């Protein structure tokens, strides 16, 4: 037997919990930004995906008006750092609701490295960093979708196999429901079947 839920008649927090426990696993954009006054910010966002390949555009969603969103609006730049399993505790720590003006890099002991095409720092230990310039934003309800044009990609060669990022080396974390996180687990390969009608 199914339970029916009408989002219009349900508390928004309950709808959030239902959606985030159902749309799983969700990749994590570990977004670094810099405020107009020069404070570096770092926060994980689990509403994240690719929006376009040509031009290369990625997107993440800020639920509410978080520092990541404010900083991107002020400077027009951000970096999406891959969130690997080995940095699990630091990634979780950067989700703390520190007061504005606090750098999560400093508060959580995350080492920076300079961006190449943007002024925003990257996470030094992240296997892959996508340096982005703001393409556009889209406000939907209580959230804002941020679209960033990827202007530079930095990949640690230790995580490459024949020039391609290797998922079993990167070991990306994902978000699930409640306080649950997902690790890589099993990987299966299966080629797409071309239509030969």
Count of helical regions:
5
Into which percent range does the helicity of residues fall? Answer: 10-25%
> Secondary-structure element sequence?
HEEEEEHEHHEEEEEEHEE
Please tell me how large the radius of gyration is: 18 Å
| Average pLDDT score | 96
Residue runs with pLDDT of under 50 for 5 or more positions: none
* Structural class by sheet pairing and helices: alpha+beta
Cα end-to-end separation: 41 Å
Count the E strands. Answer: 14
Shape: globular
Major sheet, described briefly? Answer: 7 strands, antiparallel
Q: Please give the order of strands in the largest beta sheet.
A: 3-2-6-9-10-5-4
**Which band does the percent of strand residues land in?**
35-45%
Explain the overall architecture:
By secondary structure, this protein is an alpha+beta fold. 17% of the residues lie in helices and 36% in strands. It is built from 5 helices and 14 strands. The protein has helices at residues 12-22, 67-75, 88-93, 104-107, 167-170, and strands at residues 26-27, 29-34, 40-45, 48-52, 57-63, 77-82, 112-113, 122-123, 128-140, 143-155, 160-161, 164-165, 174-175, 181-182. The strands form 4 sheets. Strands 3-2-6-9-10-5-4 form a 7-stranded antiparallel beta sheet, covered by helices on one side. Strands 1-13-14 form a 3-stranded antiparallel beta sheet, with no helix packed on it. It has a two-stranded antiparallel ribbon with strand order 7-8.
């Amino acid at each position: 037997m199914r339970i029916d839920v009408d989002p219009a008649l349900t508390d928004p927090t309950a709808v959030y919990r239902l959606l985030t426990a159902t749309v799983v696993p969700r990749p994590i954009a570990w977004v670094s930004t810099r405020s107009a006054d020069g404070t570096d910010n770092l926060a994980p966002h689990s509403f994240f995906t690719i929006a376009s390949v040509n031009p290369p555009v990625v997107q993440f969603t800020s639920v509410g008006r978080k520092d990541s969103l404010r900083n991107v609006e002020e400077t027009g730049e951000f970096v999406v750092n891959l969130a690997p399993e080995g940095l699990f505790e630091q990634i979780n720590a950067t989700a703390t609701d520190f007061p504005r003006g606090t750098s999560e890099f400093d508060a959580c002991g995350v080492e920076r490295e300079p961006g190449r095409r943007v002024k925003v720092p990257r996470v030094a230990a992240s296997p892959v960093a996508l340096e982005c310039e703001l393409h556009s934003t889209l406000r939907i309800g209580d959230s804002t979708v941020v679209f960033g044009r990827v202007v530079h990609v930095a990949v640690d060669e230790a995580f490459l196999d024949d020039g391609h990022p290797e998922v079993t080396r990167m070991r990306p974390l994902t978000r699930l429901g409640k306080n649950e996180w997902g690790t890589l687990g099993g990987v299966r390969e299966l080629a797409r079947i071309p239509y030969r009608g």
